[in-house]
Design a protein that fits this description.
- The complex is a heterodimer of chains A (about 210) and B (about 300).
- By secondary structure, chain A is an alpha/beta fold.
- Chain A has 2 domains: about 90 residues, Rossmann fold, CATH 3.40.50; about 80 residues, no CATH class.
- Chain A contains 9 helices and 8 strands.
- In chain A, the strands form 3 sheets. Chain A has a 4-stranded parallel sheet with strand order 2-1-3-4, with helices on both faces. Chain A has a two-stranded antiparallel ribbon with strand order 5-6. In chain A, strands 7-8 form a two-stranded antiparallel sheet.
- In chain A, strand 5 and strand 6 form a beta hairpin.
- The two termini of chain A are about 40 Å apart.
- Chain B starts with a helix and ends in an 8-residue tail after the last helix.
- In chain B, helix 5 packs parallel to helix 6, helix 9 crosses helix 10 and helix 10 packs across helix 11.
- In chain B, helix 4 links the parallel strand 3 and strand 4.
- By secondary structure, chain B is an alpha/beta fold.
- Chain B has a single domain, classed as TIM Barrel (Alpha-Beta Barrel).
- At the A-B interface, helix 7 of A face helix 5 and helix 6 of B.
Chain lengths: ~210, ~300
């Protein structure tokens, strides 16, 4: 990926990517060492690396702070999430920005070193009706009216390691004495609850923009 | 007036017998036609599966048209896995237009169990929503509320799993399917008649017809494979052991015996309204099973 570029900025992100051990200061430093080592071993490397970690790659105010560093390189290898990569590409139109991580999902730390997806950011939140367990994210079919017939031993037909979301929902609703929520009919999802690509405009900033 | 011959029989006192045919992987339908010819006069309706187990095949609706052209009564299996609400509504209009009037509404197996594991799972609707959508279409509008020029009228069914290892959530869903307008149910494979009896005690409060699913197994190995790999299926150890007693090469014969015995008991004890025989790739043996169960040729 970095082959065509001589000077590469390895850019970490100090917020979410740091928390999930994927692209913070520590990972940038590991990657930097690994790349230098690989280059030394192969003996024909031409790259020089610069490492840095910004507070948040998704925020123009923080990205602005690295403009001088960016002017010294031929490409940025971003260890931010997919949003960070795109925010950098928008801010630096003449610079190649490469994804250093493969952003997979929004999740939570289940235990040390284990992350589980929990939210699809769909804009059509059902968590009140499903006892705080998301069927859209955690059911492989994302269905809304109860389990399919493929569930066995509380697991999903798609993977024996994956809990059936609807069995979890049923048990938790039962525990909370709210099973009537599962007995309701839920109509098909509105996939345009927020049309994609999604945008949320807070009133304060939009007024500011209009005034500006 | 009934929507179909099958619907008419459903509301008679007759013990209903349906079966299913999986369309071919490819455009050569000769074997499927052979099976249709073999079965059309022996059962009340033939389901055509919709990419069963998420394995890509000749389409369900195309298969239903073949059943019809060859003198059989088709049940159009519709899953929500591969088509969004526009495509499903369109297919239902075509089905109705071409005289395919029985529809089985299913959510569909996960993409992960099939042969195109990298495909996009659609699931724009689930089975309950699909049933409701058909009722809306029958009332004269599409799902978005736009008027239909020519509304369909269909006999609709769904599936239920009496042998699920955790039955309560399945019953919640069953209730929703009944409320959404399902007229008949084909159950997942039933092996333990105790669970069918218990389920019928519950289901008999509703005016819906229940057809017990009968899966024909060809060996103890197949039964074990289904337990490990087929979504939801739980074959009891006693049946696996019985299949294992078959002499070499006689496994299928034993499987036919087991299936016939189940059907015979269901009919004798009047446990439910009929059976749905799933021969999973051995469609040709269905007449033997029915004969073994002493179900006379139905005739049309």
């Amino acid at each position: 990926m970095i082959d065509p570029y001589q000077r590469v900025l390895l850019l970490g992100c100090g917020t979410c990517m740091t928390v999930c051990d994927a692209g913070g200061e520590r990972e940038v430093s590991f990657l930097h060492s690994a790349l230098r080592l690989a280059q030394a071993k192969s003996g024909d490397g031409i790259h020089s690396f610069l490492e840095y970690t910004v507070k948040r790659q998704c925020d123009p105010e923080f990205i602005d702070l690295i403009a001088d560093k960016v002017s010294e390189v031929d490409a940025i290898l971003s260890l931010g999430c997919g949003i960070g990569v795109q925010a950098l590409a928008e801010r630096f139109p003449d610079m190649s920005v490469l994804p250093g991580v493969n952003t997979s999902f929004m999740g939570m730390a289940k235990e040390s070193g284990v992350w589980d997806e929990r939210c699809a950011a769909c804009g059509d939140c059902r968590l009140e009706e499903t006892a705080g367990i998301c069927p859209i994210t955690r059911c492989t079919k994302g269905i809304l009216n109860g389990p399919c017939a493929g569930t066995k031993n509380g697991k999903c037909e798609a993977s024996k390691d994956m809990d059936c979301a609807w069995i979890l929902i049923y048990k938790r609703l039962e525990r909370l004495q709210q099973l009537e929520k599962m007995r309701r009919f839920y109509p098909p999802r509105n996939f345009r609850a927020i049309p994609r690509p999604k945008r949320i405009t807070s009133k304060v900033s939009s007024t500011g923009e209009e005034n500006g | 007036m009934a929507n179909s011959l099958f619907e008419e029989k459903l509301y008679s006192d007759k013990f209903i017998v349906t079966t299913e045919i999986g369309p071919p992987k490819g455009a050569d339908v000769s074997e499927m036609v052979h099976h249709i010819d073999l079965l059309r006069d022996k059962v009340d309706a033939i389901n055509v599966t919709d990419h069963q187990s998420s394995v890509m095949r000749f389409p369900s609706l195309g298969g239903c048209l073949l059943v019809q052209e060859h003198g059989g009564e088709p049940i159009f299996q519709v899953t929500c896995r591969d088509r969004n609400r526009l495509a499903i509504q369109a297919d239902l209009l075509l089905a109705y237009f071409r005289g395919v009037r029985n529809v089985l509404c299913l959510t569909g197996d996960s993409i992960d169990v099939g042969d195109h594991k990298e495909a996009k799972p659609v699931f724009d609707l689930d089975s309950v929503q699909l049933l409701k959508m058909i009722k809306v279409m029958e009332s004269g509008t599409d799902m978005a509320g736009n008027e239909l020029k020519g509304a369909p009228s269909l006999c609709i069914g769904a599936s239920v799993h009496p042998e699920a290892d955790f039955i309560e959530p399945q019953l919640v869903k069953f209730d929703k399917k009944v409320a959404a307008g399902a007229q008949f149910f084909q159950t997942q494979g039933v092996f333990d008649l105790g669970s069918l009896r218990r389920f019928m005690q519950y289901a008999s409060q509703f005016k819906v017809k229940i057809l017990a699913g009968i899966i024909v197994m060809s060996s103890a190995r197949m039964a074990q494979y289904m337990n490990d790999n087929v979504p939801g299926i739980i074959v009891p150890q006693a049946i696996i052991d019985e299949l294992a007693t078959a002499e070499k090469g006689k496994g299928l014969q034993k499987g036919i015996e087991v299936a016939s015995r189940l059907i015979k008991t269901i009919k004798q004890e009047n446990l439910c309204h009929g059976v749905h025989v799933m021969a999973v790739g051995n469609e040709g043996i269905v007449p033997d099973i029915l004969e073994g169960a002493e179900l006379v040729t139905i005739g049309r």
